[in-house]
Amino acid sequence: LEEVEGHQGEIWTMSMSPDKRQFVSGGADKDVKFWDFELIADEKSQRRLTTFHTRTLKLPDDVLCVLYSPNSKYIAAALLDSTVKVFFTDSLKFFLSLYGHKLPVLSIDISSDSTLLVSGSADRNIKIWGLDFGDCHKSIFAHDNSVMSVRFLPRTHLLFSAGKDGKLKEWDADSFEHVLTLEGHHGEVWGLGVSEDGQTVVTSSHDKSLRMWERTMEPLVLSDERETEREEEFEKNLNDDGNEPIVPGETPGEVAIAGRKTVETIKSAEKIMESLEIHKEETNKLSEFEEECRRLGKKLPPPKPHPMFVAYKCDTPDRFVLETLVRVRSCELEESLLVLPFSYVIDLLSKLSDFIDSGRHVELCCRCLFFLLRIHQGQISTCASLLPVVDKLREGTMGKIREIRDRVGFNMEGFNFIRREVEQNETVGFFSDATQRFKEKTRKRKRRNKTVISLVS
After folding, report:
1. Average pLDDT over residues 115-133
2. Cα–Cα dist 77/88, whole Å
């Protein structure tokens, strides 16, 4: 309908006034501009809505977020210098400066009674401020990554925060307690919105999804929530303990790799090296056989396969190498690959490229590939013979991974659809069973009444 030139730089934020008659914008040009709505007549004598600039507030740094207070008395602006400035809306006179964040404030919100302001920052903290004197009531370490959005629930001092750690958390701004954590997104949560009645919260994420969270009447016991969180944290630490891959050059791990170098690890590495040597021998044998057939001009009986092919039930050298990798225990795979000499790594990378192109055990091959690239990065980058192999891997690996990801996503959605259908059918079945039992009870009662009447008569 209309395009208006508003700022000299990027526009980072906009906010509607509580009376819906004007809005304010801020951006990289360090200006906060006020705009009013107006109905004008166009060329066809039809009335349409437009905006016009009324006044400008100059600030010392880029404006990342700007917001009206619900009573329209204050205008708050979060700046790139990690502070929040509060001004009077009518005169634009300075009122408060809220400072304490170590990194820029990415989101702010003001409670419905205009007494509290909450700020969420890239330093992972949320701070609750009083708008009477600008004092910081509480600073809370809220998320494991930047806090992208904060919102108060209408007519309460409860607030929600969303962060790049993919979590949505609810807080009580009076008691400063963590109420609950909602997890559902598979990526960073970038946006957060709350309905006017406070019954619905909507989040937007880097995983290309919008999620709607509805308030329920289920009672919530904070002590039980804290106990559940402690148990989950304990299980997570228990599972993560000692499972980090050990890579040369990473300080915490060089001692641990020697402790996990077991007999089974060495045996697995020897089997991989043996499979690569057998592959080379059998490949040369097949090449000589084909050359002999071409030289004589007739088909000769094929050479006898290697005994290991029979033991592993393989018919080709490539299949034998792949089957050897498959038979290595998952928990010992990285440690076995770490023992391999670099000469064998060169041969194995070439084979992994062929396996990925053919779509055979892509997950296992990618796991081996990424680990070998990490631990032999310097030698691979200086090895001229591996450059074509690396280029081929770069082109083929991503396509195969995307194909598997799409297939897994499709299958997951299919399973979810089947699950919903089964749940609906089971629900219908339960009701039909109950109806059938009710009919049987009614039939028995009628039969009993008839028997009583016949005996009395």
Report:
1. 94
2. 12
Residue 200 is which amino acid? Answer: T
Side-by-side strand order, sheet with 158-163: 147-152, 158-163, 167-172, 177-183
CA dihedral of 373, 374, 379, 381, whole degrees rounded to 10: 60
pTM, to two decimals: 0.54
Tell whether the torsion through CA atoms of 360, 392, 329 and 315 is positive or negative: positive
- 449 pLDDT band, cuts 50/70/90, is low
**What is the reported pLDDT for 426?**
65
Determine the longest span between alpha carbons in the chain, in angstroms. 111
Please report, in angstroms and rounded to a whole number, the separation of the first and last CA atoms in the chain.
89
**Phi, psi for residue 3 in degrees, rounded to 5:** -125, 125
d(CA 49, CA 21): 11
Residue 299 CA: distances (Å) to CA of 69, 285, 286, 324: 89, 15, 13, 31
What is the CA 397 to chain-centroid distance, rounded?
22
What's the burial of 247, exposed, middle or buried (CB within 10 Å: 0-12/13-18/19+)?
middle
Residue 320 has pLDDT above 70, yes or no: yes
User: Looking at the DSSP assignment, which residues form a beta bridge with residue 200?
Assistant: 214
User: Which tokens go with 428?
Assistant: 């219908």
What separation in angstroms does the CA of 366 have from each of 282, 319, 400? Answer: 25, 17, 10
CA torsion 365-371-375-377 (nearest 10°) is: 60
Please provide the average confidence, as pLDDT, over all residues in the chain: 84
Please list, in sequence order, all residues whose beta carbon lies within 8 angstroms of the beta carbon of residue 75, skipping any fewer than 6 positions away.
24, 32, 57, 66, 67, 68, 69, 86, 87, 88, 89, 92
198 neighbors 155 (Cβ within 8 angstroms): yes
Number of Cβ atoms within 10 Å of the Cβ of 383 = 16
Pairing of strands 105-110, 116-121: antiparallel
In DSSP terms, 140 is beta-bridged to 126
- As a whole number of angstroms, the distance between CA 202 and CA 205 comes to 10
What are the CA-CA distances from residue 200 to residues 154, 193, 203, 213 (Å)? 11, 8, 10, 6
Cβ atoms of residues 81 and 64 within 8 Å = no
SS3 per residue for 156-169: CCEEEEEECCCEEE
Locate 75 and state its tokens: 């205008």
**Chain Cα centroid distance, residue 360:** 28
